[in-house]
Design goal:
about 375 residues, about 10% strand, alpha+beta, 6 helices, five-stranded antiparallel sheet
């Protein structure tokens, strides 16, 4: 009896809901399947722009390093020139004193005064010889310092020209990065707008389906004279899987000894946001996540994906077959699988999975490793 009254109530409620149009479909609304395709395309473009930005950031980092090195050379040259200026002033002062003293001796009032205190002619010649030798030595020293100073000043001028050119390249790359950042921000807003629209439409469709299903069940129950204790409903489900692949390894099989504890640090970041150039603790980009996680264990890892790849390669830890990866290793992707065009990095956690700061709107997630296509290998950075 209770069930019958409940069924009647549900039927009345559902009829009212449908009659009032609580879940109307907007006129001319795009079907959810078509909208899903648009969302997928927008996300693919967003990922492409994010990878482009990561590559541009790598280039800017390298250019800035070159500029910093040149500026350090200029600072050192300036310091060396200052020291030579001081040394030159001292040398010129000593030379002036010796010349003045020599002048006094050679310009005495009487030729006989030159012989005062000299026991014989040989001693006189010797004294004059060594006095002149000291003057010659000081003069040569001054000339040498002048020459070295001139060379340093010339080198400083060359470095200044080099610095100006490098600064121009850095400024141009910053402008390029800003333009790409603008594209990423615009695309992210577009993607999020489409995704919100899709989620709202899916929720609307699901609500309508639920209302229709409730109405159907209520009608069936109303048609039955005997209450039923349980209504069996079937749930459909599916599992998602990722294909994994690996390139045939023809080289190194030792990926190094990455600290496995970095896996726990990486997993603790799952769910946090993706923000370009961020390295935690609340948001990350792909290389920033690596820098942060290894930093928590006391390792200083450069914050850009190409530099992280180069570090692994320089240590001899780079493997190309995913079968040889160990938990804690870094995994990389580059355009065409090239190690010189890295655009994404993550932290391998074992079992064919890795943690990575995926992209704007997705954030830090665990994904299944696909070691085909643009996969560029992996290994330990320490």
């Amino acid at each position: 009896m209770h069930l019958k009254r409940f069924s009647s109530a549900v039927a009345i409620f559902v009829s009212a809901v449908l009659a009032l149009g609580a879940f109307p479909l907007a006129a001319g609304a795009v079907p959810s399947s078509e909208l899903q395709d648009q969302v997928d395309a927008a996300y693919a473009t967003l990922t492409e722009y994010s990878n482009e930005l990561e590559t541009a950031n790598n280039k800017l980092y390298a250019l800035q390093q070159d500029l910093d090195a040149t500026q350090q050379e200029i600072d050192q040259a300036e310091q060396d020139i200052a020291e030579l200026e001081e040394k030159l002033a001292d040398g010129q002062e000593r030379l002036s004193e010796r010349l003045a003293e020599s002048y006094k001796q050679d310009s005495s009032s009487s030729p006989l005064s030159v012989l005062v205190g000299v026991s014989d002619f040989e001693e006189l010649v010797t004294q004059l010889y060594y006095a002149n030798r000291m003057i010659d030595y000081d003069s040569e020293l001054v000339d040498e310092v002048k020459s070295t100073r001139a060379e340093l000043q010339e080198r400083r001028d060359e470095l200044a020209e080099q610095e100006a050119e490098q600064q121009r390249l850095v400024d141009e790359q910053k402008q390029t990065n800003a333009e790409i950042e603008s594209k990423v921000a615009e695309q992210q807003a577009y993607y999020e707008s489409l995704d919100s629209e899709l989620q709202a439409q899916l929720a609307e469709e699901e609500a309508r389906r639920a209302a229709e299903e409730a109405a159907r069940l209520a009608a069936e129950q109303e048609a039955q004279n005997n209450a039923q204790n349980n209504t069996d409903t079937g749930n459909t489900g599916g599992d998602t899987g990722g294909s994994t692949g690996g390139s045939t390894n023809t080289g190194n099989t030792n990926s190094g000894s990455a600290p496995t504890s970095v896996v726990d640090v990486a997993l603790a970041q799952v769910g946090k946001s993706y923000v370009w150039a961020a390295e935690g603790p609340n948001a990350f980009d792909c290389s920033g996540l690596v820098t942060y996680c290894y930093g928590q264990l006391g390792y200083s890892i450069v914050h850009y994906s190409q530099g992280q790849y180069d570090l692994v390669a320089s240590l001899g830890h780079l493997v190309y077959d995913a079968a040889y990866l160990s938990p804690g290793d870094l995994v990389f992707w580059g355009y065409g699988g090239s190690g010189s065009a890295i655009y994404h990095v993550g932290i391998y956690i074992g079992g064919g999975q890795y943690v990575h700061a995926s992209s704007p709107g997705v954030g830090v997630v665990v994904s299944t490793l696909y070691a085909g296509g643009n996969f560029a290998g992996g290994g330990s950075p320490v």
